[in-house]
Design goal:
alpha+beta, 8 helices, 12 strands
Amino acid sequence: MKTTVLPETLTSNGNAFDLSNETFGELRDANSLLGDMGAIHERLDEDGYLLFRNYLDKEKVLAARRELIGKLDEIGLIDRSKPFMDAIFSGDTSGISATDRKAFARNLRSGPALKEVCFSGRIMSFFEEFFGDEVLHLNYIWVRNRRRGAAAPCHFDWVYMGRGTRNVVTTWIPQGAIPLCDGPLAILHGSHKWQELQQTYGKIDVDKDKDKNPYGGGSLTKDPNQPQQRYGGRWLTTEFEPGDVLMFGMFTLHCSLDNESPENHIRLSTDTRYQLSNEPADERWIGDDPFGHGMM
């Protein structure tokens, strides 16, 4: 098992985690369970997540990374004086303001190398065995390109895609190496079992309820200490390498650490979702050109 050495401070949206052993730790990998789908289901039920190290083809992941960096470079976000594959932010955002953001987001998620990583090969084989029948992947690929200072708040995925079956699994794929300083994902262990939170915050539809959501947008909070102090659990994270994959269900509370890259890396990752093809799917995220948020 890879062991991550923690720095003195880790934050999410500027809020420092309590790094004591009782409240913070490292994600454990499930590689030893591969080949035993029963044990994999048990682990997901127990922990609320699955981490597989070096599971995807590293060269294909790096090809997808190169493809994504190339598209960011087209609008001036990449510092070309530095190694291209390092994805160093140029500091120039003028290209963003001059770009049709919806069209750019569509272009960013539609590259063939990225689709090959997310929608073919070992990832699809895994879910066919996991679900035991024909699998549907939601067509939308959520591409995250977080610059220094950015982080995802604490949230359930269900709030954003809860109009179909609850039996959906998110796969978070680091599109390249992500050390702690670049802001990897963190999971609040045991949060998938918190019925009170599912029956309150978890009832929100971010599009239908955005005007009456007491939590603000689709997130629960920007402070990871709040749910932990109320419900318990340990925040878990780790450093990631290309080929690693992290899976979790719709009611596993997660966030990301702040990107504090001293080299000014743009942190690249993707989220994709998988379910049985014969169960209802959220109409916002399927089809040739998924509608996305805004559909009431």
